[in-house]
Write a structure and sequence with these properties.
This protein has two domains: 104 residues, no CATH class; 93 residues, Orthogonal Bundle (Cytochrome Bc1 Complex, Chain D, domain 2), CATH 1.10.760.10. It contains six helices and seven strands; from the N terminus they run E-E-E-E-E-E-E-H-H-H-H-H-H. With 198 residues, the chain is α+β, with helices and mostly antiparallel strands. Helix 4 packs across helix 6. The strands form two sheets. The protein has a four-stranded antiparallel sheet with strand order 1-2-3-4, with no helix packed on it. The protein has a three-stranded antiparallel sheet with strand order 5-6-7. The N and C termini lie far apart (64 Å).
């Protein structure tokens, strides 16, 4: 394979600055922001890198023109974009079209991780109906919400078995539904069901 004509020695790219950090193989960088707000005080000045590969976000610590620390954080989602809210919370826009809000806490509940972005967002218009009082409610019955034809044609009420089937495989339960979820293991499904029953 011929070398690039502008690279005189064919190897070291001596006329170019070296990268501060490189990922091999690529992590498919999608966006990057600098943490400036008060919420993640220990991260102030660090960079957050959104990636489309490995379902991770990276926290990078720059010192001068180098990156001296790289922390991968598994979010379980392909991350398209990042933004920092005025209060310092970090918002990640993920492939399934929802926003995840990141705040310092012990552990995000399954509901906050998988449901609140569409059904109970901190800001903006909900993409899904309210889930308050879901158990025992008629399927596709929240007034004023426009359901997908797949859910609108179903009869019956939400019970634990129906909800489990829907969360396990939305397309199998209601082919054509607009609901999108990553695969959930039995522990997360049980936690979600428990939270939705409350």
């Amino acid at each position: 394979m011929p070398s690039w004509p502008l690279n005189v020695d064919g190897f070291d790219h001596s006329d170019f600055s070296e990268p501060a950090l490189s990922f091999v193989p690529s992590v498919a960088t999608a966006a990057m922001i600098e943490v400036k707000g008060p919420m993640f005080e220990r991260w102030k000045g660090d960079l957050l890198l959104a990636t489309l590969r490995g379902n991770r976000m990276y926290r990078l610590r720059p010192v001068g023109d180098r990156i001296v620390y790289s922390e991968p954080m598994f979010l379980g989602e392909r991350i398209r974009d990042l933004a920092e809210l005025p209060d310092g919370a970090i918002v990640a826009w993920v492939d399934r079209g929802v926003l995840l809000e990141l705040r310092p806490s012990a552990k995000l509940s399954a509901f906050n991780r998988f449901c609140s972005g569409c059904h109970q967002p901190t800001f903006g218009v909900p993409a899904g109906p309210s889930l308050v009082g879901l158990m025992g409610r008629e399927i596709a019955s929240v007034p004023g919400f426009r359901y997908s034809p797949a859910l609108a044609k179903l009869n019956g009420v939400w019970d634990e078995a129906r909800l489990m089937a829907y969360l396990r495989d939305p397309q199998k339960f209601a082919p054509g539904t607009s609901m999108v979820l990553p695969p959930l293991d039995d522990v997360l499904l049980a936690e979600l069901i428990d939270q939705l029953k409350g």
